[in-house]
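Reply to thread "Modeling small-molecule complexes from scratch"

Following up on the discussion above, here's a worked example others can learn from. I took a protein sequence and the SMILES for magnesium ion and predicted the complex. Inputs first:
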Amino acid sequence: MQRVAAPNEPPSGRRRAEGLPGLPPPETPLARWVVYVDLDAFYVACELRDRPELAGRPVIVGPPPSEGPSRGVVLSASYEARKFGVASAQPAVVAARLCPEAVWIPPDFAKYEQASREVREVLRRHAGTVVPYSIDEAALYLDVPSAGAARAIAERVQAELRAELSLPASLGVATSRAVAKIATDRAKPGGIVVVPPEEAASFVAPLSVRAVPGVGPKTEELLRRLGIEQIGDLAKARPSELRRALGSFGDELGALARGEPVLEPATVSGPRSRSSDRTFAVDVDHWDEVETAVRTLAEELSRSLDRERLRYGSVGVAFRWADFSRTQRVRSLSAAREGVAPLVELAVRLARELWESERAGRRRPIRTLSVRTERLTERTQRQASLDGFAVDGPAGPGTME
Ligand SMILES: [Mg+2]
């Protein structure tokens, strides 16, 4: 990851806006801006396109409780349902108790993938590079002269998504992806938050370190032991200490907290890991079923990597057992791979190893299975290891806000 000069300083490789449609000729050198787009209650919003009569009602996408006692979780909840305390990743039984009048809709992932492609098409109309981060999040990297110009594009994107696709979105605008994503969280639902580079440090300072993409419970705990709880504390920490604790991610966190604009080359800034998971309606106690599920998940994952022209450098399989404990096995590859067959084969082998070693002497059924790929790189490009804020890793395509 490289630093860039602040937008008001002339960068060494100065870019100009020749050929950017709809923008006045630039007076100033261009800076890179990130418009981060996060669709609001995405799965629910997709369903409402087909069933507009449900608008304004509490709607939950997840395993309907009417189909018997379910062990699944809420995948997406409308804001009306959230008023009852319903939240993504909540067990369906809990959500059903909190909001008995909710309308439940079983998930239709093909529909959501299609909507996600439509969203990317809208983003691609705008001059810039589109990088998808998950089924309902993407960033548009722009070279424009000012915060105002970036905001104007964000407003247009939001209006087009609503008018043409009936999909509400929240947008964050900043000069780094991390700050733009944090701004998006603050914009929810349906807003736009713009953070100019000179305000970035004060904007993030009061927030918990957990607001930073890639900081999960493990990193949070590690930072807490260093006396760091808010992002502002990171700015005061000694860089060498952060680096010792977190490697290059520590450097990135320090830069983020100090509001230093960080250039993320759009071509290599995709997410560093991807996973696909499944929670079974009934805990699984037979290898055949495990194998079938692992194959399906690995195929899904492989197809989604393929669409984005990504290769993977390691593969992992994790089981969440019926007692909620979790075990995983990860294998690094000597060279990045692509394609369905090697991913499926390796995932099944890892699952088999895990199944045999973890069940030795005790029979415990599996509740949730996940297949994960890490160290992702673009197919025809240099490797992407410098980028990405995924230390604990994002949750994958399972649940979302
Ligand atoms: Mg979302």
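What I'd highlight from this example: The two ends are 28 Å apart (CA to CA). The first helix runs from residue 42 to 50. Questions welcome below.
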